[in-house]
Specification:
Rossmann fold; seven-stranded parallel beta sheet; 11 helices; six-stranded parallel beta sheet; single chain; alpha/beta; 13 strands
Length: about 350
């Protein structure tokens, strides 16, 4: 089986720091290669992969501001489509735009929907619903207007996350600095619970950071350490008493939640989106609805068995399980096409 995998062009694959879609795409590609599958990854030229690599741009547009995103997006997507006949299946991880090629090529396209940026993009998915295949990354993120071939949870490389049975006493916010991710709420939870908070993440909303977050940062109780790379991420998450995830949107998955549990670190999250699918209340963390509930839950974190968090993540969110899920999807598509 020959698989062409399309990665986004915002960041390198895998990303040096932030870039969840690129990270998951990398995990898929590398996992398939380990299974002996012939994989060609379409990503930036500076990407790192054991698959064959094809590219039109050496760098990502978020890393090189001289690149016009729309121009290079068009060149990037058209590159895989012009090689469509080389593959048995094209695996699209680049949202809705590649779907517009699906009726112009014979190669079937499976699209992992990593989330809906808004309801305005659903008409594109609806138009190509009958001739392509959609995979959701959680059951909660399914649109009732679309058909899906499977749900495959995002998988993470277990070797990148070290189990730590003896954490420190700080709380951690790890993610985009943006109102919908709950950075300010994490500060309020930490203050109410009397614990130190470390914040790590890409500043996606500069005004929010300057006006709402920065005034609280004193490098003692509230610390901002920047946008951390893989090694720093492993240490920050593994050493944390708990990860705070007070989201204000229906998050499709939440990689940091799975990564946290992989390190043995419990998660306290607002009960929205995919969180009930990722977290076992009382076993790997707590689902709450308010800042006060979250602060009170800190008194129960010591009842969580960190080894159980690790085992849960290994069973549900490993790279191997994700890859096996996608192989099953590919085989199902082949059977459908052969009938």
């Amino acid at each position: 089986m020959k698989i062409g995998i399309l990665s986004p062009l915002a960041w390198r694959t895998p990303p040096l720091k932030y870039g969840p879609w690129e990270q998951v795409t990398s995990n898929i590609a590398e996992g398939l290669v380990k299974k002996g599958i012939d994989v060609t990854l379409f990503a930036t030229g500076n990407s790192r992969t054991n698959a064959k690599l094809k590219y039109v741009s050496q760098t990502a547009y978020s890393e090189d501001k001289s690149l016009d995103p729309k121009v290079w997006e068009c060149l990037h997507i058209s590159n895989i489509m012009e090689h469509a006949s080389d593959f048995d299946i094209i695996h699209n991880n680049y949202d809705f735009l590649p779907l517009t090629y699906s009726r112009l090529i014979k190669t079937p396209i499976v699209t992992t929907i990593h989330g809906f940026s808004s309801k305005k993009i659903i008409p594109v998915y609806k138009k190509y619903n009958s001739n392509t295949f959609y995979v959701s990354i959680s059951n909660s993120d399914r649109s009732p207007e679309l058909d899906y071939i499977a749900t495959v949870y995002n998988g993470i490389n277990t070797n990148d996350f070290t189990y730590n049975p003896s954490p420190e006493d700080y709380l951690l916010f790890f993610g985009r600095i943006h109102p919908e991710k709950g950075t300010l709420e994490s500060i309020e939870i930490a203050k109410k619970s009397g614990r130190r908070l470390i914040i790590s993440g890409l500043i996606q909303d500069q005004v929010y950071f300057e006006e709402k977050i920065k005034p609280h940062i004193n490098n003692k109780e509230i610390v901002y350490v920047g946008n951390s790379g893989p090694k720093e991420r492993d240490k920050l998450i593994g050493n944390a008493y708990a990860l705070l995830h007070p989201i204000h949107f229906d998050e499709p998955f939440g990689l940091s939640v799975a990564e946290s549990m992989m390190c043995g670190t419990p998660v306290v999250a607002f009960n929205r989106g995919s969180m009930p699918e990722l977290i076992k209340p009382g076993k790997t963390g707590f689902l709450v609805n308010t800042i006060d509930e979250a602060a009170r839950s800190m008194n129960k974190i010591n009842t969580i068995n960190r080894q159980h968090c690790r085992e849960w993540a290994l069973n549900e969110f490993s790279l191997e399980k994700m890859v096996n899920g996608y192989i099953a999807v590919y085989e199902q598509i082949k059977r459908i096409k052969n009938n």
